[in-house]
Design goal:
Shape of chain B: globular
Order of helices and strands of chain B: EEHEHEHEH
Largest sheet of chain B: 5 strands, mixed
Shape of chain A: globular
CATH topology of chain A: Heat Shock Protein 90
Distance between the termini of chain A: 24 Å
CATH superfamily of chain B: STAS domain
CATH architecture of chain A: 2-Layer Sandwich
Largest interface: A-B, 28 and 21 residues
CATH superfamily of chain A: Histidine kinase-like ATPase, C-terminal domain
Number of domains of chain B: 1
CATH topology of chain B: Transcription Regulator spoIIAA
Number of helices of chain A: 3
Number of domains of chain A: 1
CATH architecture of chain B: 2-Layer Sandwich
Number of helices of chain B: 4
Largest sheet of chain A: 5 strands, antiparallel
Oligomer: heterodimer
Strand content of chain A: 25-35%
Strand content of chain B: 25-35%
Helix content of chain B: 25-40%
C-alpha cells in the first residue's frame, strides 16, 4: 500500500497521474489499463479541485494505492464539499454538436473506465472516493 | 505540452505534443481562438505526438468545433489520433463529432 498527499491544484495532475500509473504498472496492468487508471484518477482529482474545494482553495488530496492480486484499488480522500453521485446529470452523448453538453463527462468517464466506484462522505471523515480496476478486464 | 501552428493555403495545422489536461487545456483553447480571431475556421489538429488527453481537452475540441462549424465556415479535423485517446473519445461519444484522418497531410489535403 502506498499513500501520497498532493496539494489540490491542476499543476499537480501530472504528478498524481505518475503516482497512480506506477502503481498500476506494478500491479501488472497492461498499457490500456494503466491509461484508464490515469484518466479516471485525473478526472476524479479535477472534480475535487473544481467542485470539492473550488479552484481557489488549495486543499489537499490524499491518494492511496492498494495493489492486489486481481488489480488495483485507489482511494482518494479530500476534505472539501461533498456531492451526491446520484444527482450528477449524465452527459448527452448522442446529441448534435450544438446541443452536446459537457457537464458530467468526468464522472461518466470515471464510472465507465473503472470496474467499481464507491463514494462515501461524512463531516468527520470528509469525502472518500474508492476506485477499483481489475486486471484483464473489459475496458 | 507544446503547440505549434502552421498556416497552409486552405487551412491551419495545429500540432500538439505532450499531455492535455485541466492545467494545459487553456493553451490549446488559446491556439484555436487565435486562429479564429484571424478569421480562419478550417483547422487540422495533428495529435500524433499527443501522449494523453483528459475531458478538459475534449472540451477544448468541442468549443473549437462549435466555433468553426458555425455558418458552415469550416471545421476541425483530427489527424493521427493515438489509440488510447481515440478509445476515450469514443467512450465520450466524441468520434461522431469529428472527421478523423490517419495522417495530417491527408487531412490538410482534404480542405
Amino acid at each position: 500500500m502506498r499513500t501520497a498527499i498532493f496539494q489540490a491544484n491542476f499543476a499537480n495532475l501530472d504528478k498524481i497521474r505518475g503516482f497512480v500509473s506506477r502503481a498500476a504498472g506494478d500491479a501488472g496492468m497492461d498499457e490500456r489499463e494503466v491509461y484508464a487508471v490515469q484518466l479516471a484518477t485525473d478526472e476524479a482529482c479535477t472534480n475535487i479541485i473544481v467542485h470539492a474545494y473550488g479552484e481557489k482553495n488549495n486543499g489537499q488530496i490524499e491518494i492511496t494505492c492498494n495493489i492486489q492480486e486481481q488489480g488495483l484499488t485507489i482511494i482518494l480522500h479530500d476534505h472539501g464539499r461533498s456531492f451526491e453521485p446520484a444527482k450528477v446529470r449524465e452527459p448527452n452523448l448522442n446529441a448534435r454538436l450544438e446541443k452536446r453538453d459537457i457537464g458530467g463527462l468526468g464522472w461518466y468517464l470515471i464510472c465507465t473506465l473503472m470496474d467499481e466506484v464507491k463514494f462515501e462522505s461524512s463531516p468527520e471523515a470528509g469525502n472518500v472516493l474508492t476506485l477499483v480496476k481489475r486486471k484483464g478486464g473489459s475496458t | 505540452m507544446e503547440i505549434t501552428t502552421k498556416q497552409f493555403k486552405h487551412c491551419d495545422l495545429v500540432t500538439v505534443k505532450g499531455r492535455v489536461d485541466s492545467a494545459t487545456a487553456p493553451q490549446l483553447d488559446e491556439a484555436f481562438e487565435r486562429i479564429n480571431k484571424a478569421g480562419h475556421f478550417k483547422i487540422v489538429l495533428d495529435m500524433g505526438a499527443l501522449e494523453y488527453m483528459s475531458s478538459a481537452g475534449f472540451r477544448s475540441l468541442l468549443a473549437a468545433q462549435r466555433q468553426c462549424r458555425r455558418y458552415n465556415r469550416g471545421e476541425v479535423l483530427l489527424a493521427s489520433v493515438p489509440k488510447r485517446i481515440q478509445e476515450a473519445l469514443e467512450l465520450a461519444g466524441f468520434t461522431e463529432l469529428f472527421k478523423i484522418f490517419n495522417d495530417a497531410t491527408t487531412a490538410v489535403g482534404s480542405f
